[in-house]
Amino acid sequence: MPPDGSGRADSGAEAHFRALESLYAAAPINRLFPSRLHIDTPGASRIEFEIGEAHHHAAGAAHGTAYFKMLDDAAFYAANSLVTDRFLLTTQFSLLFTRPIKSGPVTAEGRWISGQRRVFVAEARLIDGEGEEAARGTGTFMRSRIALATLPGYARTA
């Protein structure tokens, strides 16, 4: 359960979630990884994307960079959904690859695990187009000195 214990977002949280989604969409890296972030509840996120040949390694399946990027982002945004003033930074991330992804739709699901002040722990999993888990990861994220409100793309409306 998120730190507030409610499991529900108020209108202030909704504005924060939409601003985080906007921030994600504005990140230049996402031109290389076209995808869409969804945050509906505190401590959870979902990223939808499509794996294609541009993401393949020499053996014809998705390269680990695609796995890492989506798992890290999903866990990160699940954690940052609980922090309304500061940008979090990934300080550690562990991956477990469970099956290759060739091509098609993939969903990264992120979930906050613990931490409420300075350090947060969150996990994520990748689900392929057949509904099978292809990878999972766990990360630690720390509050930075970077104010969310100063970042291009973070446009909060209430």
From TrEMBL:
<protein>
    <submittedName>
        <fullName>PaaI family thioesterase</fullName>
    </submittedName>
</protein>
<dbReference type="InterPro" id="IPR006683">
    <property type="entry name" value="Thioestr_dom"/>
</dbReference>
<dbReference type="Pfam" id="PF03061">
    <property type="entry name" value="4HBT"/>
</dbReference>
<dbReference type="GO" id="GO:0016790">
    <property type="term" value="F:thiolester hydrolase activity"/>
</dbReference>
<dbReference type="InterPro" id="IPR029069">
    <property type="entry name" value="HotDog_dom_sf"/>
</dbReference>
<feature type="domain" description="Thioesterase">
    <location>
        <begin position="60"/>
        <end position="134"/>
    </location>
</feature>
